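Weekend entry, working from home. Most of the wet-lab plans are on hold until the incubator is repaired, so I used the time to fold the two sequences that have been sitting in the queue since the last round of cloning. Logging both here for the record. First:
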Amino acid sequence: MDPPNPHQAVGFSNKDKAYVIWSCQSRTSRYAELIKQALQAIEENKIFTLYSSSTAIRKALLERGWIEKIPPDRMNLSKLRNGPLRTRTEIYAELERYFLSNFVEKCQPNFIWLLKCQQFETALKDMMEAKECNTIINKIKKDAMWTSKQGLCSSMKRNYWFYIEDVAEVNGPRTYNSYDAGEIEGFVKDYKITACTSLLKWVLSMASNERPVFVKSGKISIKVLVFALNRCKEYLFRKQHKDIDHSLSTASPAHWNAFLKKYYRIIAKQDLFQEDKNNKLPTYLGYAKFLLREIHKYRPQLSCEGCHNIWIIKPAYCSRGKGIRMASKLGVITDLLNKANDKFVIQKYIEEPLLIHETKFDIRQYYLVTSTFPLVIWMYTDCYLKFSSQKYSLKNYHEAIHLTNNAVQRNYKNCKGRHAELPQNNMWDSEMYKQYLKKIGKRKLWERVIYPGMKKSIIGIMLSCQDSLTISKNRFELYGCDFILDKDYKPWLIEINSCPDMHNSTPITAKICPAVLADIIKVVVDYARDSKSSTGKFECIYHQPITIPRKASDMCVRGYSLPLDYFYRDNIEIKDSYDADTDKERDIKAMVHKLKGFYDPDILFQLDDDDSSSSQNSKKDDTINDHTGCDHNTGSENELSLAATVITEQLDEIIDRITSDNSFTLKSDKKMDANSTNSSKNHKHMVKRMQSVTDIKALLKSTRTTRFASLETLSIKQKFSFNGPQGKGSFDQFNPIKKMFEKLPKRTHQSKAKKFGNNNDLKEIQNEMFDATSKIISFINQKEKEYLHQFLE
């Protein structure tokens, strides 16, 4: 025969129902009130079911006009006949409760409070058949990622991805899962480097307290300290990625075993080092301080992990302190893990916690999650402290000293010599602790360090686990997390418990637990229906922002024009870059070097490297001028002056023809004075026009944007094609170039030829001018092709 199902719907028999109804009908006026109350609750969706004896939840809902639908397995008249109910008032109250439950037995409850052992699917079997379940339930479907020690360990390892400055930051001890071989290997490496840092901390601590460390009678070689220094240096190199290009020497397993044996002797048996004969101790101590300071950046727990290298081994799925062990030797820990059949987590023990009157304590903090997507977290502003019953000591690993769980401490009596200010029931509420902080001059630390630190840890760990959750409508859950404070009052997250114990085990829990449960109803019932309602002492510490998705058709790109200065580090003026003094710049190459101030040197390299420049100049002079921009020695002072003047005039004519109306027209150019006789102004004019022609890509862009205000009036009157004639300003359009010089007034040639004495000198200068001008036109032609090619693509 199958065993009875504890969740089987037994309920009242017909006889029991008849008795309950008759008992209420005998009181006619009260019976009518009960019927009216039940109908109103059905209409307003105020029916709840509790799978636990949570008096605070029941009381809070009854005060709001809700009706309890009692689970069938909990409806039993034996409580009335043989139970603790003695007075007639208590009996009638219980009969009315059964009557109302029987009246709404076919209605779906609108609020359900489950126990930890309650199977979620079993309890909601009837309701899950509906397409939409609007029932509020105190369980999130999947929460093992952070409520189990194993899941919390995994969550902490990826938490750095969810760091938000001043919002989300988790501080937790280093933890490893025993079921993963890679995790065990990581733990062994961590244990070894922790032994090195612990030794350095021990030596520095002894030296700062002026206690003997290096003595004649010492038995430990100073090489042990050097070994630890080298391993810490290698650890830093790996963290700083310096091992990528340089291989690091690693210690062999035999060396590590020898070091750990000496380390155990130093820490446990207080063995000392041999005397420092080479007087290197100051250097070693200074180097140790430096290494520890740098390592602390990568291992924040270094400030509170002590010198004994103690680790705590916890069963992955146990609670209330069951099965927890502590050990400081690597061999003991590995043997324990190898022999165990269950999964464990190995966590670095905080050896230097904050103590109150030489006694260890932790903080139990409650928080509430009312939504998973978006994530909404509420934190209870009140909490309580759990003390150990014994004085803190690292010489003894007994659970009464190190485990502050109430389930453990209630099994032990408080030690002798215990401070009078410590509570006999080993609990303080947060107000008592604040008074203590005020007494020792630390009253502001709660608001500035402790409470914000716990808040950031809770937000951070929930963000790191959010991806493992499903979207749960009308779901919420209360969690209890434990924190330990270090000597700087920074909270360290130890563990998180789902369905925390809310029983009144001590006067402190009898006060805070019912208040927490009553305030939960304020949040999930009152506040959910009216956002102006009170939430008690629950504070919303995080409400995840939501970005509304848009359809592709609704998307558009918006922007603004960037100023010219955005693309340059300095304000480049044309005058400073191009204003060539024709009396000093004697060669076209010098002018090209001036152009380099505005254009990218890679664009103008062809102009510099062309072998057809200035046949009368030596290669040496060309090389020097390419790098320095110095003057060329092309002849006498008069010859150079004449050449510069003629080149300037011809360039003006070339640029004028390039920027004719057949190609581009700039309104700004029409305003220029074409009849100006000043050579420097003519040269500026030439440069501006050259810029407008060669920077075709920028001009094309200006037809679509307002990036450059000076190019707003640009208009393209002719399409560019690579198959037909070249665009305006191309080399073909000015072929042959000598025709330009033929168009020059003869008077100019003749008057200037007299200064040279014969026509040969003039022809030579004209040839040089022709070569130089050909280069510029070739350059313009090439850049025009490049810009047009980019535009057409």
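Second, folded right after the first finished:
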Amino acid sequence: MKLVVVLLAGLLSAATLAVIVAVGLYLYFGPQLPDAGDIGTTQLNEPLRIYTADHELIGEYGTERRIPLTYDQIPKRQVYAFVAAEDDRFFEHPGVDYQGLMRAVVHLIETGRKTQGGSTITMQLARNLYLTRDRTYTRKIKEMMLALRMESKFSKEQIIELYLNKIYLGERAYGVGAAAQAYYNKPLDELTLAQAAMIAGLPKAPSAFNPIANPDRARQRRDYVLGRMHDLRFISDAQYEGALAAPVTAGQDHGNNKTNPVRYEAQYVAEMVRQEIVSRYGDKAYTGGFTVTTTLSSSRQAAADRALRRDLLAYDARHGWRGAETTIDTGLLDDATKRRGALDEIATRGGLVPAVVLGTSGSTLRLATAQYGEIDLAAAQMPWLSAGQSASKLGKRGDVVRLAYTGSKDKPWTLAQIPKVQGALVAMDPHTGAVQALVGGFDYNLSKFNRAIQARRQPGSSFKPFLYSAALAHGFSAATMVNDAPVVYDSPNLDKAWRPQNYSGRIYGPTRLREGLVHSRNLVSIRVLRRVGVGNTIDYVSRFGLPADQMPHNLSLALGTASFSPLQMAQGYSVFANSGFRIEPYYIQTIEDGRGDTVYQAKPQMACDDIFDCPMIDENGQPLDSSNLAPRVIDADNAYIVGDMMRDVIRHGTGRGALKLGRDDLSGKTGTTNDQVDAWFVGFNANLVAISWVGFDTLTPMGDAETGGHAALPMWVDFMGQALKNTPTAIPPKPEDLVTVMINPDNGQRSLDGSGIAEIFRPDRIPSREQAERAGPSNSTSEVEQLF
């Protein structure tokens, strides 16, 4: 009896001591800890995400990759996988698992070593939110106290929801939503059981169990999680066996960039958006969870990327082979694992896959890649190899070269090299200014210089439609005769006399204005500019949104010696496409903050004509007013006639390469500068304007044959073929007051007998019969001689 009393007294004393210690710990540590209510306002650092108009991800910026999900959005098997792996009594304990804690204490007494046992999901969350990762008793006590506070104020569902959104899982992914994208490139609810278990195995050691970097160790950890789920009856025998047999698939759905969820390349636009959001919100741009929807069409953006890269590679194939990009130690080549490791250090650029030369046999080049194994290239797959030449001319064992994927079943690969020439492509809706596609170079990771908006290059003859529009506004018609004859200009500002020539070097004599544009006659353009006046022309062209300070105040302006970016040219040409209205380019449609509230909505001024049916109310249901309408800057008559002359550029002139598209609604103009330094093609229909430019960043000649029609037009044709696929014909509407009259093509006057060719005139510019009778059969009239 006495022993029982002693035992009871001892237990009571121990209990009293435990209470005193607990109270003491609470009084000491409690004031140092945050109130559990603060957890409700915990900020999850969400990155800036940028999407196309059809909601395809094109960019993500921030130190933490995160996709917050509610508890209801998280699949139950994902919850069970984490519970099985980290805390199987999560739904039973009050935040501290005393059973697990006692096991940890016993292990400490027996071995003298601390373990990680006894740390519940709630305790892990407390540590992640408020504490350091130092393995000390003090931190452990704080963990338990915070866990108890949390469990007293929040439900289990709320706690595990925050835990699964907060926890770090490797690959810059915080939370299960981001981890699903980082490892499998798909939403969390589309993961298989095996994939869910793989993610649940990561918290213990995200680097060691990373399924991309360490697939074998990751599989072992995954199988452990599956075993725990099976033991706890979270999954059936069949589910368990099926998941165990599943291969490790992390990183296999991402193409060459295994951990990047971005599927549509638009890095130049993404960077434009990033800079804009940072300018608005500062560093909060990277943590505030902003979602930006751009105006890009994902399909047209993809088409633009492909078209630009194909065009630059085609240019490169027309010029010299520069040799190996680098070399790999030949001692590594016979070991497939070592060879693959060396190749993995070389990034794919512009879609070009790195490959190492294993050897040559006659005209065959044997290569190895990291992703696609060994590949043999025949002579026809190597643009720089002539018939009968040995493949050893292009590479020796150990040389690293590039391969381009062609998509052909018979010959899927071709030898390539990263081009030194560069390019840009911009496509825009001419009625709103919405940028539909924009590419600023061959590969953003090779050069972040955005040539679509930052490069100011001479447009060459692609400037001439603006000049001819000015001429129409100053009394000309499309049939006005201009003498294509030599001109010589002396000036004290010139070292020698300026003797401009046509590209062909030929002289054509009296030429109708339409023919001058169709065949890009330089001498005609100079005489037109001299007649209209340089000052008048610059003032007029400024209406198109092209800055006056970027145009030279001399007659060289007629040859396109101004300096404009491709985006500026797209804005200018939109005036012709939309019947005379100036629109402003824009690329951000909406900005939403981390709460999902819209903090910015674009309200572009719109060009309203018979093609584009302007909405009569805005997104809030309010009537549109004049502030929503783009200003008219040239007459519809003028815009239509210039556009019609540019349709002839494609039908009969320097843009004939676009005929392969089989459309009759395309207007366009080539542009080539002196020594073929810049090559352009600018074209449109009523619904889309597209600009292609090719050139070196260093203002280096591209070669004698590299004109706008040869170097830039194929890119434009490639893009427009995809962009306008299955779209109806869209020609800007013809103004009702325009009149079609038959004219004599030799003198531009009205045909007296009804023969000749048709030409379009404004009512006040129709040639009279009297003028035709005065002109007679001669190509030169007194009126022409007086003017030119």
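Plan for Monday: verify the second prediction. The longest helix spans residues 2-29.
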